[in-house]
Amino acid sequence: MADPIDFYTPDPTVRELLATHPNLSLDVLSGLMLDGVPLTAIAEEVGTPCWVISADTLRKRAAQLLGAMKGAGLSVSAHFAVKANGHLAVLKILAESGMGADVVSGGELLRARKAGIPASRIVFSGVGKTDAELRLALEEDIAQINVESAEELEVLSGVAASLGREIDVALRVNPDVDAKTHAKITTGVAGNKFGIPYDEALGLYRQAQALPGLKPVGYAVHIGSQILTMEPYRAAYARIAELVRATRAAGMAVSVVDCGGGLGICYRDEGAGSPQALAGAMRSELGDLDVRLAIEPGRWIAAPAGVLLASVILRKAVTGGEPFIILDAAMNDLLRPSLYDAWHGILPLSAHDAGLAPEAAAIVGPVCESGDMFARNRQLPPLQRGARVALLDAGAYGSVMSSTYNARPLAAEVLVDGDRWSVIRPRQSVESLWASEVMPDGVRVEA
Questions:
Q1: Where does pyridoxal 5'-phosphate bind (predicted)?
Q2: Which H or E run includes 232?
Q3: Same domain, yes or no: 214 and 117
Q4: Taking a C-beta distance cutoff of 8 angstroms, is the pair 378, 343 a contact?
C-alpha cells in the first residue's frame, strides 16, 4: 500500500523533504519559505492553524501534466477533480491553466461555474446523483455525465425527457483491476460501490441507445487514488479498449474514453506517479482507437501545492516513552492521517529548530479522540511550546475535508503567488458556528 504509515523505515530528514518539495526552501534568517514567502510571516499575521497554497505550483503542475499528454501525441481533455480542492481561487487558477472540472455533486458543479469554468468543460461523476443534481447538470448543459449503474441510466433518461433535453453520457466501467493502493481509496475492484460490472457494460450501452434524452458517447474508468505504478492503468485501459472494439463491432459508435485520475505523489519516500508514464500507458493501450481521451487529475495537481501551518500548544512528557507534541491543528482540519493512516511530512518553520538533532515524538491534535494523531514515532527536532510547523502535501483532501468537530472553527486559507500572499478565506468566527441554528419555541436558554 502506498499511503499508510510505515514504522519500519527511517523518516526522511529535513534536507530530504526539502529536496522532494521544490517549492519549499529553508532560509537561515526567514526560516521555511513557500516560493518567495516566509511561512512564519503568514503564521504571525493570520494565526494557526492555517492552510497555505502556492499558485505557482498549481500552474506548473497543470502545465507539466498537460505537456506530458501533448508530448505523447495525445489530444486530451483535462478536468480537475474538484473534490481534491474546491476553493474558487484554486479552480480559477487551474481553469486559466487549461483545466476543466470533474464534479461529484451539485455543489461542486455550481462551484466550478462560479469559478468561471464553462459548462462545456465540466464532467459529472459519482455513484449517487440525485434527481435535483441531474436536473441541474442538464439545465447547465454540461459536457458529460458519467453514469455508474443501470438504475441511474433510467433515472437520468426520465429527468432528461421531462426537460426535453439530451446529454452526452459515458458508462463508468468497473474493470476489476486492483490499483494496489489503500483499501479506502481503491475504486476499480469488484465489490466496490463504483461503476458498472465489466461484463454488463456492453449490454447496458446498447440499452442506453434506446433511452430518450441520452446520447451514449463512450466509457469511463477510474480505479483509485494515489497510484504510483503504471501496471494497474495499463490493465484497466486494455480492458476498456477491448470493450470499445466490442461495442463498435456490435454496430454502435464510441467517441470518448474517460481515463479517470488517481496519479499519486511522493508523500514520504515512495516515489511519485509520472505524467509521462501515464501518457505512455494511455497511448499504448488507447492510442489507436480514434477516440477523444479525458483525464481527471486531482491529488497530483493540488497536494504538493499546499501546507497546513500549526503551532505547538504544549509538549507533554511521557515517562519511558516518546513525548506528545500537541498542535493547535487537529483531525478536524487534516483528516487523512486519522482516516487513512496517511503519512504527511512535517517541517519546523524555524531554521534554528530545523538544525537541531531529531528525536522520536508523537504529533497529535487537541481533539477529544484517540485517533487525532498526525504521526507516531516521528523523528523531529525537539519542538517546544510555541514552535511552528508545516504539514506538507496538504493541498488536496485537506481543507475540503475539514469540519467544525469539537466546535473548532474552520482554519483560514492563504494563497501565495510568487513573493506575495493574500487571505482567500478568513478564519471562521466561533459565533458563526451557531449563527444558523434555531431555538424552537418553548425551550428556555439561560443567559
A1: 262, 296-299, 397
A2: helix 231-249
A3: yes
A4: no
Q: Which residues carry a binding-site annotation for substrate?
A: 299, 336, 340, 369, 397
Count of the separate structural domains present in the chain = 2
Indicate whether 141 and 168 sit together in one domain: yes
Active site residues: 368
Rounded to 5°, the CA angle 277-183-368 comes to 120
> Of 302, 325, 343, which residue sits at a domain end?
302
Annotated binding site for pyridoxal 5'-phosphate: 262, 296-299, 397
Q: pLDDT tens for the chain, 447 residues: list them.
A: 344 444 467 899 999 999 999 999 999 999 999 999 999 999 999 999 999 999 999 999 999 999 999 999 999 999 999 999 999 999 999 999 999 999 999 999 999 999 999 999 999 999 999 999 999 999 999 999 999 999 999 999 999 999 999 999 999 999 877 555 544 444 445 556 678 999 999 999 999 999 999 999 999 999 988 999 999 999 999 999 999 999 999 999 999 999 999 999 999 999 999 999 999 999 999 999 999 999 999 999 999 999 999 999 999 999 999 999 999 999 999 999 999 999 999 999 999 999 999 999 999 999 999 999 999 999 999 999 999 999 999 999 999 999 999 999 999 999 999 999 999 999 999 999 999 999 898 877 665
On whether the CB atoms of residues 151 and 130 are closer than 8 A, the answer is: no
Q: How far apart are alpha carbons 382 and 357 in whole angstroms?
A: 8
Joined together, the cell numbers standing for residue 333 give 482540519
Structural domain boundaries, residue 396: 14-54+304-430
**Alpha-carbon distance values, 78 to 212, 260, 355 (Å):** 28, 10, 42
Does pTM surpass 0.90?
Answer: yes
Binding region:
262, 296-299, 336, 340, 369, 397
